[in-house]
Task: structure prediction
Amino acid sequence: TQLLEQSPQFLSIQEGENLTVYCNSSSVFSSLQWYRQEPGEGPVLLVTVVTGGEVKKLKRLTFQFGDARKDSSLHITAAQPGDTGLYLCAGEGDYKLSFGAGTTVTVRA
Amino acid sequence: DTAVSQTPKYLVTQMGNDKSIKCEQNLGHDTMYWYKQDSKKFLKIMFSYNNKELIINETVPNRFSPKSPDKAHLNLHINSLELGDSAVYFCASSARAGIQEKLFFGSGTQLSVL
Result:
């Protein structure tokens, strides 16, 4: 199993602030996915990054895949209460997804 | 219509009992999965089926037995439940087994073993 570490574990910020969450591993992944999970629901895919150094933007969310394809970051600009949730990264290797333990983000109004 | 639906949503039972969780997807996908999410939110794959055939079987006690009667259904039966089995179990599906596939998750079954 390829281990992914996410940091921080918890993040609480005020509406309008920016935040960054990190996903790190010692393993190389063929691709990396980010999911958001809300309480009582299953994770929902936000983005898949494939190429080392790739940057993808989804409205106020910016995702980056490390050059060596071992790490990734998610940056949210001007966070809103609707961004509240558990953010999970998942690295793909051997046709399996290995998930990190997630970062719980709370955006206060 | 819910894409991936699993029942029940909540399951409270005594140690030693046997229980089943059902999952159905109406997306026409070939591949289905069972994941377990522990109290620390760590999501770990248990099983994966592709067109009713088992393709991933992680280190899971043999008290857990998945069954896929057709590619739209993947059920999970658990024998002799233990306290440590308490978790949220998620069913998921993807169009096919392979790289960069998007997983569609159900809303989870919270299992509490007393």
Summary: Chain B has no helices and eleven strands. The interface with chain A takes residues 4, 35, 40-45, 48, 56, 90, 92, 97-100, 102-108 of chain B (CB under 8 Å).
